[in-house]
Amino acid sequence: MTPSCDRTVFVHDWLNGMRGGEKCLDLFSRDFPGAPVYTLLADRSALSLQLLSHPIVASGMLARLPFFPRRYRWFLPLFPRAIEAFALPEGTKLVVSMSHCVAKGVRPPPGAKHLCYCFTPMRYAWDMSAAYFGRGLKHAVLSPFLARLREWDRASAARVDRFVAISECVRKRIADHYGREASVVYPPVDLDFFTPDPKVAREDFWLVAGAMVPYKRVDLAIDAAKLSGRRLVVVGTGSEERALRERARGAANVEFAGKVDDETLRDLYRRCRCLLFPGEEDFGIVPVEAQACGAPVVAYAAGGALETLVEDGTAVFFREETPYALLAAAEKLSGMFFSHADLRKNAERFSAKRFLDGLHAEVETLLRGD
Known about the structure:
Elements: E1 8-12, H1 20-29, E2 37-39, H2 49-52, E3 56-58, H3 60-63, H4 79-84, E4 94-99, E5 113-118, H5 129-133, H6 137-156, E6 162-165, H7 168-178, E7 182-184, E8 205-209, H8 218-228, E9 231-235, H9 241-247, E10 254-258, H10 262-271, E11 274-277, H11 285-292, E12 297-300, H12 305-308, E13 315-318, H13 323-334, H14 340-347, H15 352-368
Parallel strand pairs: 1-2, 1-4, 2-3, 4-5, 5-6, 6-7, 8-9, 8-11, 9-10, 11-12, 12-13
Helix pairs in contact: 8-13, 11-14
């Protein structure tokens, strides 16, 4: 039997927007009204009313640091200590951490069971350090710290009683890096909101959407658009935005839309010729949202895309991370017919109900001690 909300605690790395991880927390926390949420950083102005209905406990240690809310990534070396500093309430029976960085390293109180819904072992420490820090002097300087971070990350996995991964590729990384088994429960897509609209006509433009960070490879989409002259709409913000805007300088066919609301994003999904998904993702909620709205996808054939997309059925894959390979896949897609019904049916595999049923079953299994 799942513990009552006053005996359940949630832990999340940071809460400063409503991206895929925060949406998972938003949905699952509805079944635990009033359960506290512990996090390193909380920007309440950026959170849903549902999350704001929970007591949110932010790190007091980090909050005292100058510039922390705006430059929180600078303080990564302090994150392990800060997550361990939380004193979770006595009498807690269930800790649910939703982790892509250090949240899983929280110390559960005596008698509590700890389930980690793992978005990924931290990318910058394990699989993608070169993508984040380059291969030059910066990476060399950071290497000793990253080695210590990996050591802490591996050791802190022992505080988790049960791992649940968001995809098969993340399940494999958990096994590789932590030596632990994990079940898989796919994240949810809001299928009631992301829907096709038969009254809206498809237009001749490509769309790329998401955070502008190195591993997303938005640069490939921009370069392919420059080569082809095709109109490209780029949605999102992030650390790479300035460099990407500079890369697109002089290309009138590349438009930067910045951060948009959900209604605008849905409209773009409904109108675009296709979504470009050029990076390797752990799961990739954006292409599933696009398919739910009837848009086919051009995707790099790696990571979560291999689980969420159907080659030549709902997507066209490219297998070399070059703008030429992406462009060839996009040109192939332009000559294909995609059934809106098939796109929608594929997206429906990732419903909120399946997510909730799956995660509740994992909690019940943990508490029974199976």
